[in-house]
């Protein structure tokens, strides 16, 4: 009887030690991934993948002093999983966000993005971020800004080829085939609602809109310059700037691979006065 009691006490002691070890290790792990500098998030567009911003992030890591990807966050309606990519105590932390379901509506994707931001706040104590977004990623980012308070605040927003006034149906289907994305069409309710809700857009956010202009198109081959700079309608003049890239490499999918875009993003996010 006594030996059985000793065995139970021994097992309880071992479980207690194991639990204390787990708690201590978890605290050390969280501390090692504490992020002190404002990170820059990269948000892809409709049907985008990890490859969408892979090139730009790699170029910044190679050419921009202090720039390093620290997290890659994979997100869906069901869960958010952020994978550390190394040390976080870098001067210019980069975070890539990848939507596993990349063909959802703007509203649904913004809800998933809010889950990402909640994870960044609760697990990494991030309070402020910058965002670089391509195409529909810019609509999702703006929707997040308008609809969600109490999560990490956006300090600077860069939109690249974002269709704030939508895309002509013909041009959309030329690019995406039979896919159906009514939020991205011209005069959609999604874009109208976004641009009519100026009061909900944080007036302190600095915005840079980047558009492409091909010689034989009113824009980047998919999004017109007018549409790509449409966010100006809800931004204070002193907080808004835009850049138009005019060459044959400034196509919609070519913009985030363009060295001139890299230059404007770098200057705006890290070199401009805060």
From TrEMBL:
Does this UniProt record's set of keywords contain Chaperone? no
What keywords were assigned to this record? Hydrolase
* InterPro entries given in the database record: AB_hydrolase_fold (IPR029058), DUF915_hydro-like (IPR010315)
MF terms from GO for this chain are: hydrolase activity
Pfam hit, one: DUF915
Write down what this protein is called. Answer: Alpha/beta fold hydrolase
User: Which species does this protein come from?
Assistant: Metabacillus arenae
């Amino acid at each position: 009887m006594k030996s059985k009691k000793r065995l139970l006490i021994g097992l309880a002691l071992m479980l207690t030690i194991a639990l204390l070890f787990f708690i201590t290790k978890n605290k050390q792990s969280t501390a090692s991934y504490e992020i002190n500098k404002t990170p820059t998030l990269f948000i892809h567009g409709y049907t985008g993948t990890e490859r969408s911003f892979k090139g730009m992030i790699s170029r910044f890591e190679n050419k921009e002093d202090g720039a390093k990807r620290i997290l890659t966050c994979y997100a869906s309606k069901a869960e958010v999983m952020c994978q550390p990519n190394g040390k976080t105590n870098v001067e210019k932390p980069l975070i890539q966000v990848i939507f596993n379901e990349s063909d959802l509506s703007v509203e649904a994707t913004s809800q998933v993005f809010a889950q990402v931001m909640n994870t960044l706040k609760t697990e990494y104590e991030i309070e402020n971020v910058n965002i670089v977004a391509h195409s529909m990623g810019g609509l999702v980012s703006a929707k997040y800004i308008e609809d969600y308070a109490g999560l990490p605040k956006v300090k600077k927003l860069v939109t690249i080829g974002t269709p704030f006034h939508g895309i002509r149906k013909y041009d959309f289907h030329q690019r995406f085939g039979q896919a159906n994305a009514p939020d991205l069409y011209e005069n959609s309710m999604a874009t109208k609602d976004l641009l009519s809700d100026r009061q909900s857009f944080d007036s302190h956010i600095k915005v840079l809109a980047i558009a492409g202009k091909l010689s034989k198109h009113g824009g980047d081959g998919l999004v017109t310059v007018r549409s790509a700079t449409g966010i100006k309608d809800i931004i204070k003049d002193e907080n808004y700037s835009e850049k138009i890239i005019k060459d044959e490499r400034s196509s919609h999918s070519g913009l985030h691979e363009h060295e001139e875009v890299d230059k404007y993003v770098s200057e705006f996010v890290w070199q401009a006065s805060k």
